[in-house]
């Protein structure tokens, strides 16, 4: 979830996400692909991204 949160916070910029997480760009691409497969979502679809972002935000509030 942290990868996805940072990805959204950087404006869906893979290069910035990789820099903030101190990993290679391909690692971020791999993680995003895995998230898409496991959650059955399209991260390039703004509406689905919005739903995922709200889910992450609500999850953090409830902790």
Q: How many β-strands, per DSSP? A: 0
Based on helices, strands and strand pairing, what is the structural class? mainly alpha
| Structural domain tally | 1
Rounded Rg: 11 Å
Q: What is the molecular shape?
A: globular
First-to-last CA distance: 14 Å
Detail the poorly predicted runs.
Answer: none
The helix/strand order is: HHHH
Mean pLDDT, all residues: 91
Largest sheet: none
Describe the structure in your own words.
With 63 residues, the chain is an all-alpha fold. It has one domain. The chain has 4 helices and no strands. The longest helix is centred in the C-terminal third of the chain and has 16 residues. 8% of the residues are buried.
In short:
This protein has four helices and no strands. 8% of the residues are buried. The protein has helices at 2-9, 14-21, 25-39, 46-61.
Please outline the helices and strands.
Elements lengths: L1 H8 L4 H8 L3 H15 L6 H16 L2
What structural keywords apply?
63 residues; mainly alpha
